[in-house]
Write a structure and sequence with these properties.
Blueprint lengths: L3 H6 L3 H27 L5 H26 L4 H20 L8 H23 L1 H6 L5 E6 L2 E6 L9 H11 L1 H17 L6 H25 L4 H53 L6
Antiparallel strand pairs: 1-2
Helix pairs in contact: 2-3, 2-4, 2-5, 3-4, 3-8, 4-5, 4-7, 4-10, 7-9, 7-10, 8-9, 8-10, 9-10
């Protein structure tokens, strides 16, 4: 098997193909979002917020390129959740409130979907890439009376890839709640002052979820069984808060556009958690 030092010096050709594919996917995300904005019949506040959030995902792909180049193990779950949520984020903007989607938007969405599927296929089906993504983060290491900044295995017990996938998917709960909360803020600007308490609750709930997931997954990575139950409770609580508020403040259109991506992330988190529970711990 290729060692970590060899992986850093010589990257296999398939890894270079993956990094190029990720760069193309990031650029395509920006282009497709600009096309959707250009052809949108109404360039409203909600569309601007959703478009801005979807374009920020291009930065996520650039971050993923860095993880792939460094051979980090977190690249797989990060790539999976980025691909899934990107397809949902772009898909909800392609379809207008009325009428049929414009042809350029549909073609761009099809191209972006094909790129995301290709990224996931390479990450999870290529044995060469699997052998490349074996490195850990660098940290301060004290050895022999000297302090150095180098790669070191984490002190926590080894975890499965499914557990990492569940953690990364759960981290998307907060932004997926905050984006529609900001969109619902437009209802306040339209004179629906009765929605102020609900919008504020939605916004602060999204922030609180980020801290809850951070704390829960920290114990989850250390093999605490109660953390798995807590993550399931957090996921169900997020859905119980998010979906009714989407329906009440944004209507059926908002429930589909902003509820479906969170349902996809929650499903992925729970499925990965289930698989991790029934997968033997790595040695």
């Amino acid at each position: 098997m290729r060692t970590a030092a060899e992986t850093q010096v010589r990257r296999p050709s398939v890894v270079r193909v993956l990094t190029t594919l990720l760069a193309v996917t990031a650029a395509t995300t920006v282009v497709v979002e600009l096309l959707n904005w250009w052809y949108a019949p109404e360039q409203e506040f909600g569309l601007a917020v959703r478009t801005g959030w979807a374009m920020l995902r291009s930065l996520g792909f650039l971050l993923l390129i860095g993880h792939v180049n460094r051979g980090r193990t977190v690249a797989k779950p990060l790539g999976l959740i980025l691909a899934v949520t990107t397809v949902f984020a772009v898909g909800r903007l392609v379809v207008p409130r009325q009428g049929v989607p414009p042809l350029p938007g549909l073609l761009g969405f099809a191209l972006l979907t094909a790129l995301c599927v290709s990224v996931v296929a390479l990450l999870y089906r290529s044995e060469v890439i699997g052998a490349h993504l074996v490195r850990h983060r660098k940290t301060l290491v004290v050895s022999g009376g000297t302090i150095s900044w180098r790669e070191a295995a984490p002190k926590r017990p080894p975890v499965t890839g499914w557990l990492l996938t569940s953690r990364v998917a759960a981290f998307t709960y907060s932004p997926l709640m905050l984006v529609p909360a900001l969109v619902a803020g437009g209802a306040i600007l339209d004179g629906r002052l009765i929605a102020v308490p609900a919008v504020l609750f939605w916004f602060f709930a999204g922030i609180a979820v980020s801290y809850a997931v951070l704390l829960c997954t920290a114990f989850l990575m250390r093999g605490k069984r109660w953390a798995r139950t807590l993550l399931v409770a957090i996921t169900l609580g997020v859905l119980a808060i998010h979906l009714p508020l989407c329906w009440w403040l944004l209507g059926v259109d908002g429930l589909i556009r902003d509820g479906a991506p969170l349902i996809a992330a929650a499903t992925l988190a729970l499925y990965a958690l289930h698989r991790a529970t029934h997968t033997p711990d790595p040695t």
